[in-house]
Amino acid sequence: MTRVSMPRQEYLWLLPSVLLGDGRSAGPVRRSTRDWFVDTVMFLLACVLNLLIALEMDGPTPLVAAEQVVGVISCLAVWLRRRWPVGLAVVTTVASAYFEMVGGAGVVALFTVAVHRPFKVSGTIAGLGLLTIAPFSVLRPDVEPTGLVYVIFSLTIVLTVFAWGIVVRARRQLIWSLRQRADSAAEEAKRLERERIAREMHDVLAHRLSMLSLHAGALEFRPDAPAGEIARAAGAIRSGAHLALQDLREVIGVLRHHAVTAEVPDRPQPTLADLPPLVAECEQAGMAVRLTMETGDVPEKPGRDLYRIVQEALTNARKHAPGAPVTVAVTGAPGEGLAAEVRNRLPARHGPRIPGVQIPGAGAGLIGLTERAELAGGRLEHGPAPEGEYVVRAWLPWPGRT
After folding, report:
1. 40: containing domain
2. How far is CA 137 from each of CA 99, 130, 302, rounded to the nearest angstrom?
3. 296 neighbors 333 (Cβ within 8 angstroms)
4. Burial (0-12, 13-18, 19+ Cβ within 10 Å), 301
5. How far is CA 157 from CA 2, 144, 146, 150, in A?
6. Domains held by the chain: number
C-alpha cells in the first residue's frame, strides 16, 4: 500500500480545517451584490451592538480602552465571516468570556456558522458560547446586568441567534431540495419526450425503410420485369426515400429544438382514418392485405395508437413473412374498447423465402407495441396460432359517451 507523505507545514494548515470545519480558501471570496449588502448589514449590526455596550461603560480606564480596541478589531473581523466562519466564531466566543464588546461580532459569527455549517459544528460553537457565560459573570461582576438576570439574558441571545440560523439553513436546504426536484422533473420530462420522439421515429422510419427494401428486393429478384413495373418501383423507391429523409430531418430538428428546453409542438400525427391509405400503400408495394373496419368516430388518441400498432404489425409481416397474405380487422365501440387483429401466414407454411427480399429486424418492434398499448391503458398479445398463422391482437380503452 502506497503512503503519501505530506510536509509538516501542510499538517499545520490542515489542523484548523479538521478541528474547526473551515476549508482552506484558494483565493479571495467573491461576493455578489446581495452578499455585499448582507455583509454590510452584519457589520453595521455588530457596530451598533458594540456602540450600545460602549455607552454603558464608565470613564476612560485601561480596561475600557482594551474593550474598545477589541471591539473595533472584532467588528472589522466580521468581514472575514465568509472565508473563516468557524475560526471567527471560535475566537469571538472565547474572547467573550472576558471582553464585553466582542459580543456583537460573536452574535454575527454564531449566526453565520449556524447558517453555513452542519449542526455538529454549529452546535459545538453554540455550546461553547453557553459555557462562556459563567466565566464572564465571575470575571466581570461589575457589568450590568449581573447574576441570574445576566445568565438568562445571555442564554436567550445565544439560543435565539442559534435557532434563527438553524431555521435559515433548513429553509435554504428545502429550497435547494425543491430546485433539485424541479430540475429532476424537467430532465425526466425531457427524457420521456425523447423516448416518445424515438418511438415515433422507429414507427415511421421502419415502415418507410421496409417499403424501400421490399421494392428494391423485387427489382433484384425480377430484373426482367417490364419497363413500366421497373419505372413504378423506382418511382416508389425515390418517393419513399424522399419521405424517409424528410421524416428523419423533422425528427433531428425536433431533437435539436428540444435541447434548447423550448416546448416542442407535436408534428401532425396519423389517426385511424389514415389506416386505409396505409393499407393501399402496402398493396402498391406488392403485399396482399385485406382490411375490415367496424368502428364509428374513434377519438384521436386511441385511434393514433391503434394506427401505430397496425403499422408496426404490417412492417413486421413484411420483414418476417414476405409475400404472405395479411388480414387486418379493426372493431370497436364506445365503452367496449378498440380492438385490432393482424394475421399473416407463418413463413414455413407458405413456401421458401424470396432471396434478397428478407428485411433485417432488431426485435424491438413487438416490445415497442406492447409498451405503447400498456401506456395507453390497454394490452397486446402476439404469437403463433394453431392455424399456422402469426397473430397480433391489441385492445385499447374507448370511454363511453357521456
Report:
1. 31-144
2. 11, 12, 80
3. yes
4. middle
5. 51, 15, 15, 11
6. 2
pLDDT for residue 145: 66
**What is the per-residue pLDDT across 193-205, written as a single tens digit (0 to 9) for each?**
677 666 666 666 7
- Alpha-carbon distance of 207 to 69, in angstroms, equals 85
Task: Check: CB of residue 36 under 8 Å from CB of residue 42.
Answer: no
Any idea what the CATH number is for the domain that residue 307 is in? 3.30.565.10
Q: Is residue 99 part of a domain?
A: yes
Contacts with 90 (C-beta within 8 Å, 6 or more apart), sequence order: 20, 125, 128
CA distance 304 to 182: 31
Q: How far is CA 251 from CA 168, 193, 245, in A?
A: 47, 12, 10
Last residue of a domain, one of 144, 171, 186: 144
CA distance 380 to 316: 15
Residue ending a domain, choose from 94, 109, 144: 144
With a cut of 50, say whether residue 16 has pLDDT above it.
no
- Residue 202 counted as domain residue: no
Report yes or no on 12 lying in a domain.
Answer: no
Distance CA 313, CA 305 (A): 12
pLDDT in tens, 109-155: 888 899 888 888 888 888 888 888 877 777 776 666 666 777 787 78
Q: And the C-alpha cell for 366?
A: 413487438
From residue 351, alpha-carbon distances to 112, 221, 237, 346, 360 in Å are: 83, 16, 26, 9, 19
Grid cell digits, residue 172: 435554504
* Cα angle 330, 371, 397; round to 5: 45
DSSP category for residue 285 = T
Query: Cell triple for residue 308?
Result: 401505430
Q: Considering the domain boundaries, does residue 10 fall inside one?
A: no
- Residues 285 and 279: their CA atoms lie apart, in Å, by 10
Q: What are phi and psi of 391, to 5 degrees?
A: -120, 135
